Amino acid sequence: MLTARLEHEPEAVIYLAGEMDLDCVDLLRETVEKVGDGADTIILDFTDVTFIDSSGTGIFVRLCLDLQVADVKLRARSIPPVVAQVFDMLKVRALVGDEVFQS
Question: Between 4 and 89, whose confidence is greater?
């Protein structure tokens, strides 16, 4: 189960923890929508994500594309190896662009 904690730093940061799968779609979408209206940049911090599947990856890609249209920058940081492997396998960078990923 995914949990999300929101902090407002210079940008809005959403700290994710747990498993990103079909069960997290509504939580993640609602959390991003809460901050999306007033933010120029939203950062998803993946430090504590322990699992991601195609559904979790799909919601991430969908959010990136939707926010690009709304002129809100979505950035991903602290991608653990388990998530990076899935993103690489599904070619997420090609779908959303390298600029989404922070070191």
Answer: 89
